[in-house]
């Protein structure tokens, strides 16, 4: 029987639908290279402290690292994007937004900062939401995806790796610990990225209790507090 978690999905066990990895390469029409283009991976993939084996990041100053080792994006959002982007061809398969993990039944409203999930045999922890950048717009031929992600709070989230292991498509993603049930990815993203701090200073102050929040977002909170 599934455990009952405050702000949890209907089930605390989700199926990994697809895994994607990508290599750094020239980003068409841009001066900077990128690894945002991810392709599905067949079979087991090792999950290391800095991410999934075979996956790369181009600009390590803002991408990758222990707190952004793995990017998870909900397939649940794809119908929204197909409507918004006139069924762009990138949306035919998972990985359109540079995500490593694709699932159905789990979104930013149901995932909390600090949640620990058993991913195959690995153990991962939610560290922050994804902060979209210009490369998302560029990938979609200049469409205003970035701004829409912020407005709709549909940006995905990152994991840090607590225990290394392996995972493959079809494996379970199981919630095993939740310490901060009030701090969903959507709520924290709203406060730190989407401007909600302007009307919820008390929430911004209380967010300091969430010690699992990635350091860049913890610093951003202090800047917003002034």
From TrEMBL:
Gene3D superfamilies assigned: PK beta-barrel domain-like (2.40.33.20)
InterPro entries: Benzoxazolinone_Detox_Enz, MoCF_Sase_C, Pyrv_Knase-like_insert_dom_sf
GO terms assigned for molecular function: catalytic activity; molybdenum ion binding; pyridoxal phosphate binding
One Pfam short name: MOSC
Stretches of the chain forming a coiled coil according to its record: none
The MOSC domain, residue ranges: 39-176
Name the UniProt record assigns to this protein: Molybdenum cofactor sulfurase
